[in-house]
Amino acid sequence: MAHKQYDCNMGCPVEAALEVIGGKWKGVILYHLSSQTYRFNELRRLMPEITQRMLTKQLRELEADHLISRKVYPEVPPKVEYSMTAYGETLTPVIHALQTWGLKHLQRDKVT
Fold this sequence. Notes:
By secondary structure, the protein is α+β, with helices and mostly antiparallel strands. It has one domain: Winged helix-like DNA-binding domain superfamily/Winged helix DNA-binding domain (Arc Repressor Mutant, subunit A). The chain is built from 6 helices and 3 strands; from the N terminus they run ααβααββαα. A 3-stranded antiparallel beta sheet has the order 1-3-2. Strand 2 and strand 3 form a beta hairpin. The radius of gyration is 16 Å and the shape is globular. The model has no long low-confidence stretch (mean pLDDT 90).
């Protein structure tokens, strides 16, 4: 995946990071893969609102950015597993920090 060139200012690294992990589903996919390897249909079951087409697209983008790896086993029917790469694992603290913040945010919404 070709990366955009940035006219960097102080917010540039945040913009670059959000371009790679932003969107509705990438963070959720990375969250699940941070704990274990999953097959495609297992990920679909964990995220019942995502369409098969969108999951495929998001997985391909994450793979193109070297955050996850896709392993195909030569079986019939084919078995495909997705897991975090070593580079993707560097995002684990960020994903867990987002989870912590999200829990606090959801609790705050219940109070107000």
